[in-house]
Amino acid sequence: MEKIKVIFCGTPQIGADILTTLTEMENVEVVLVISQPDRPVGRKKELKPTPVKEIALKNNLKIIQPVKISEAYEEIAQIESDFIVTCAYGQFVPTKILDLPKIDSINVHGSLLPKYRGGAPIQYAIKNGDSKTGISIMKMVKKMDAGDYYIQESIDIEETDDTGSMFEKIAKLGQKMIKENLLKIYNNELSPIAQNEDEVTFSKNISTEEEKINWNDLSVNVWNHIRSLSPWPIAHTFKGEERYKIQKVQILNNNVEAKPGTIVNISENGIDVQTKDGQVQILLIQKPGKKMMEASSYKLNNLSDLKVGDCFE
């Protein structure tokens, strides 16, 4: 058979993983890669290629990086394709582009739709304390993440997981699913299933304000909130004007009465902070202007910027 011609749209590492799988499939030819423009990173603000661009260059694939994909319509339309496959591209793809492929435009989405439509499904699944999430391979339509899905598979969220580890798990699942199902979709062997509109929830992109820890919440919610933002962008809290980033905590069973946000103990194990119903112990913390470090350093090195009785806001 002729190779399946794919235009791929993606930007971060999870997209790069899906693109890698497509390049390794013997029955697939990636005819074009579309990624977000390179962004300045670090203190020197040097332009860094997206992970998807790095894979495209490694495999000598044609790549474009339009500021707005709609402005690249003419260039995309000249390339014959069977599918557009997207994964975490980061731009709204207009209908006139979605209609270009012979077969379909599909998206590898990191949730069990109709749950968590939007740009942060993995983060929301962890934040809400879900025990499972998954991948939906879905038809792309004008409305965001509202298309019928061809197939779904679930994966467990363990207590040891954070967003970083779940992205790795989800990427591997997505690679497996695209490898097993793209040819089936091409051969019309999978029937799309409509989403139940009554069960739709959304996962909008997380704002800086939403990264702030609410110590007046239950310990389990504080824990879920922090791991949903680890390893990026990392939850934060304030002591006065100073902002501290907190990447990892564990729930304690101590029975101490204090105002939520109060540091109730500093030990070789970490920093214990009061919540609405108990305490969590900070394990990884970043002081203003410093690198992330183990919270046990406060006791072991007699650091003085935080002490028992101080209160995070």
Automatic annotation (TrEMBL):
One GO MF term: methionyl-tRNA formyltransferase activity
PROSITE patterns linked to this entry: GART
An annotated GO cellular component: cytosol
Catalysed reaction, written as an equation: L-methionyl-tRNA(fMet) + (6R)-10-formyltetrahydrofolate = N-formyl-L-methionyl-tRNA(fMet) + (6S)-5,6,7,8-tetrahydrofolate + H(+)
This protein's UniProt keywords: Protein biosynthesis, Transferase
Domain of life of the source: Bacteria
Key word Protein biosynthesis present: yes
Domain Formyl transferase C-terminal residues, every copy: 205-298
EC category name: transferase
Formyl transferase N-terminal domain boundaries: 3-180
Assigned EC number: 2.1.2.9
Entry-linked InterPro entries: Fmt, Formyl_trans_C, Formyl_transf_N, Formyl_transf_N_sf, Formyl_transferase-like_C_sf, GART_AS, Met-tRNA-FMT_C, Met-tRNA-FMT_N
CDD domains: FMT_core_Met-tRNA-FMT_N (cd08646), Met_tRNA_FMT_C (cd08704)
Binding-site residues, (6S)-5,6,7,8-tetrahydrofolate: S111, L112, L113, P114
Any Pfam family the entry gives: Formyl_trans_C
Function: Attaches a formyl group to the free amino group of methionyl-tRNA(fMet). The formyl group appears to play a dual role in the initiator identity of N-formylmethionyl-tRNA by promoting its recognition by IF2 and preventing the misappropriation of this tRNA by the elongation apparatus.
Family stated for the protein in its record: Belongs to the Fmt family.
PANTHER family, per database record: METHIONYL-TRNA FORMYLTRANSFERASE, METHIONYL-TRNA FORMYLTRANSFERASE, MITOCHONDRIAL
Record's protein name: Methionyl-tRNA formyltransferase
Species this chain originates from: Mesoplasma florum
